[in-house]
Amino acid sequence: MPSQPQQNEARALLALLTESLGSKTNEHKQLEEALAKLKVLGRDANNVSAIYDADGMKTLGSYAFGDFPPSIRHEALRCTANALLLLPETRKYLLKLGFDKQAADALRDADEDEEFLLSRIMFLLTYDPGIDMETLVTEHGLAESIVQRLARHAEQAKNTKRSGLTGQVYMAMLETLKLLFNATSIKTDQAAKFKPAVAHICRILEYTDVPSPPLQPPINLLINALANLDIDGGDTQTAETRSAVARLISILALAIEGHPPTELDTTAVPLLTVLRKINDTAPPDLRGSMKARLLPDDKERDQPLGKSSSLASQLLRLTTSSGMLNLSEAISGLMFELSGKDANEYVKNVGYGYAAGYLMTHKIPIPESAKSQGNGESSSQVPINPITGQRLDKEPDIELPNMTREEKEREAERLFVLFERLKATGVVNVKNPVEVAKEAGRVEELSDSDSDE
Fold first, then answer.
1. Which residues on adjacent β-strands are paired with residue 383?
2. What is the pLDDT along the chain (453 residues), one digit of tens a residue?
3. Which of 8, 16, 195, 367 is buried most deeply by CB count within 10 Å?
4. For residue 84, what is the enclosing H or E element?
5. Do 131 and 98 touch, CB atoms closer than 8 A?
6. Is residue 152 part of a domain?
7. Which UniProt keywords apply (predicted)?
8. CB count, 10 Å around CB of 423?
9. Is the domain of 358 the same as that of 425?
10. Is 26 exposed, middle or buried (0-12, 13-18, 19+ CB in 10 A)?
């Protein structure tokens, strides 16, 4: 709980630091101690809200980016990061003072301690609409610095042999990934300069153990950053990306098992986005391996699609979950694109029952194969039910109950009306079974004296 003495102490410490900038009378140890005390007091915004104005932030920035020993600069950076987090109005002060540019410059040669602090400060500054990301990238090398830091972390991850990054190295990587995501979320003409990060993120993914549940740091931050980057044909040809695809699909399977469906509606969408981006420019062999993992295979067609325990069936079931529109759209979009963006192929792969919503939402014409009964075929040329995706020869026989003649007539009349209405909609092109039977000569007029069968 804040108290007047703590507020007074914070004010006195900042005054001492401000005065020392001009007179340079205090020793470095005294300055470091003053900043350390101010850092602790600054963890409660009420202690420092009155003094962290433009002048107060100028003092902190002068120590953070001035010609001082690393120990002093680091304490000042910690004070600054706390202020930006707890007092959002301080962000505009730092931007007006140009400290964002100095932070970007300092990130070029930062060690892990400085990377953690500088990346966090830059990350928090990206939430202010006044940040000039274009200038930070073109004149202060922010994209190159981020890429270099991630390249270093990729090498460190490789050397750990899956024991994982730890300590300050790990924390620095997390902050840089968050900065990368926010920086690429701001619209500029410099997106291509962040693109080399794709290979480094894929390498980090390869050498990082997956936590349980999987979509938490560092995995979710790696995936979020990838989702914001351009992935082209050159990237999908590399060994790193190919390895990352297998890793990402495994993470997707673990995520479905480990996260509640309501969480997946937000946390799994970036992962599906990355897979869609890779598929878009993937060579045929890589796309084939993705289809083999993410689309139902013929072995599943002994029963209606979505009934088995495979990853593809789990994904199909999620598309019908109530209230998860983002997840359903992402999964259906991925499967449609894996089907070559061909509606006929899409229906053949997942069945019209699962495909209908996506096709109608995106105003994609319904293929003829979905309008006619029994016209579907699996990859082995076995006829399938186009609605359920099940093989026709595996559909169970339906046992009809014994019915009186009057019941049969009422049921036939009801079905006749239903089929006529269905045909009139144009959604499904079916022929009324009564017409089919009549044309085949299987309709027999019964007299009133005929007995029930």
1. 377
2. 557 999 999 999 999 999 999 777 778 999 999 999 999 999 999 999 999 999 999 999 999 999 999 999 999 999 999 999 999 999 999 999 999 999 999 999 999 999 999 999 999 999 999 999 999 999 999 999 999 999 999 999 998 866 678 899 999 999 999 999 999 999 999 999 999 999 999 999 999 999 999 999 999 999 999 999 999 999 999 999 999 999 999 999 999 999 998 999 999 999 999 999 999 999 999 999 999 999 988 787 767 787 889 999 999 999 998 889 999 999 999 999 999 999 999 988 898 888 888 999 999 988 776 555 444 554 456 676 766 766 665 566 666 677 788 887 888 788 778 877 777 776 656 666 666 666 666 556 655 555 444
3. 367
4. helix 70-86
5. no
6. no
7. Chaperone, Coiled coil, Guanine-nucleotide releasing factor
8. 14
9. no
10. middle
Given its phi and psi angles, is residue 381 left (phi above 0), alpha (psi -120 to 50 degrees) or beta?
Answer: left
Q: Burial-class residue 233 by CB neighbours within 10 Å (0-12, 13-18, 19+).
A: exposed
Q: Are 382 and 391 contacting, i.e. CB atoms less than 8 angstroms apart? A: yes
Going by C-beta distance under 8 Å and a sequence separation of 6 or more, which residues neighbour residue 344? Answer: 367, 368, 369
Cα distances from 300 to residues 247, 396, 423, in angstroms, run 24, 15, 30
Both 384 and 410 in one domain: the answer is: no
316 with 346, same domain: the answer is: yes
Residue 95 is which amino acid?
A: L
Task: Kindly report whether the peptide bond that precedes residue 2 is cis, defined as omega within 30 degrees of 0.
Answer: no
* SS3 per-residue string spanning 103-159: HHHHHCCCCHHHHHHHHHHHHHHCCCCCCCHHHHHHCCCHHHHHHHHHHHHHHHHHH
| Spatial separation of the C-alpha atoms in residues 249 and 231, rounded to whole Å | 17
From residue 126, alpha-carbon distances to 73, 131, 228 in Å are 22, 6, 15
Token pair for residue 195? Answer: 């693109």
Residue 11 covered by a domain:
yes
Whole-number CA gyration radius for the chain? 32
Instruction: Say yes or no: 89 and 20 in one domain.
Output: yes
**Which of 64, 97, 130 delimits the end of a domain?**
97
pTM as predicted: 0.84
Q: In terms of domains, do 28 and 58 share one?
A: yes
